[in-house]
Amino acid sequence: MSDQSTTTDSINYNTNRNEILPRVDQSLNRIIDGVRLNKDIEYRLSDLLATTLRHATGLLGIMFPANPHVDSLELMSLLDSSTEKAETTVLTATNEELLDILGTLIEIFMQTMRRVVEDEEFDKQFTEDGQRQIRFDLSRLQLAAQEAELHRQEQKLSRASEQAESVVSHIEEIAGDAASVEIAKYYNEHARAERNRYFFWTAMLLLTVASSVALVWLIISRIGNAPASAQEIGRLALVIPILALAAYAGRQAGYHRNAESTSRWISVQLKTVRAFTDSLTVETRQEIMSQLGTKLFGSGEMARNEAEEQFGTANELVQALKDIISNRK
């Protein structure tokens, strides 16, 4: 009864073998063609898969001999379903997906080849040269598996590198944004200070003009219709340094008004440049940022602002006051 069952199993196995192996062989060839047609696959990976599968097609008869091993039918069915799945996805597969396909197929190939080598009848079924060839073929499959794993590690390293570059770029962008905010804050504070200076010198201008008008009116009202004496003319001369101080105050007021306007304009640019450039291409964004950086730092805009802020503030004012005092004497 046991012999009859074994014979029936053998017949069923060979029937399936005669149907499945030719189908698997054709499927492997279609996968090879699909890899060549897929332009998104790296050449080295494409060559590895094509070479490995072409080699495996010549080993199918050895992997699944007429006298089955314990799990030969199970492995053969697994290979059939795996190749069917692979040939439906290979045309659009990515490198990672192709590595998964290759890994699955190579693992099945190696399992079946190990069954052959570990079989008790291995020495009797093959000549010495045949045994060496089969062991060599198994080593080739193992080498292909190692190479596929190296490709997988390269893909992981590449993704990790891209992620690291993205993180670095993001950090640099954040740092750049923080720096822009700080510089914009500086220019905003500078604009407020310039506005205060503008108000001060405007008030000084109005005060000196009013003082000049009042002094002239006072002297003229005291002279009346009488001829002006030398003393009265000397008093009128006091108006000249006051008017000089008024002119200086007007010039300072104008300068600080312009400085405030420039600082606020730069501050607005720094605050809005990120929002403006987000929708642009990387090249255009870099060009705009480079131009802005050159304007602020390369051309000495900040240093020039600081230098011009001290324009004659002390010396001319002191000189004007000295003129007033000396004339009063």
Spell out the helices and strands N to C.
Answer: HHHHHHHHHHHH
Tell me the β content.
Answer: under 5%
* Helical stretch tally: 12
Number of domains: 2
Cα radius of gyration in angstroms: 46 Å
Q: Globular, elongated, flat, extended or rod-shaped: what is the shape?
A: rod-shaped
> Which residues form runs of ≥5 with pLDDT under 50?
306-315
Summary keywords:
329 residues, 2 domains, 12 helices
Summarize the structure.
The protein contains 12 helices and no strands. The chain has 329 residues and is mainly alpha-helical.
Describe this entry's structure for a reader.
- It is a single chain.
- By secondary structure, this protein is mostly helical.
- The chain has two domains: 2-125, no CATH class; 175-328, no CATH class.
- Helices cover 86% and strands 0% of the residues.
- The chain contains twelve helices and no strands.
- Helix 1 (2-37) runs antiparallel to helix 2 (43-57) and helix 2 (43-57) packs antiparallel against helix 7.
- The model is unreliable at 306-315 (pLDDT under 50).
Chain-wise SSE layout:
Elements: H1 2-37, H2 43-57, H3 60-63, H4 72-89, H5 95-118, H6 122-125, H7 128-223, H8 230-237, H9 239-277, H10 282-298, H11 301-309, H12 315-328
Helix pairs in contact: 1-2, 1-4, 2-5, 2-7, 4-5, 5-7, 7-9, 9-12
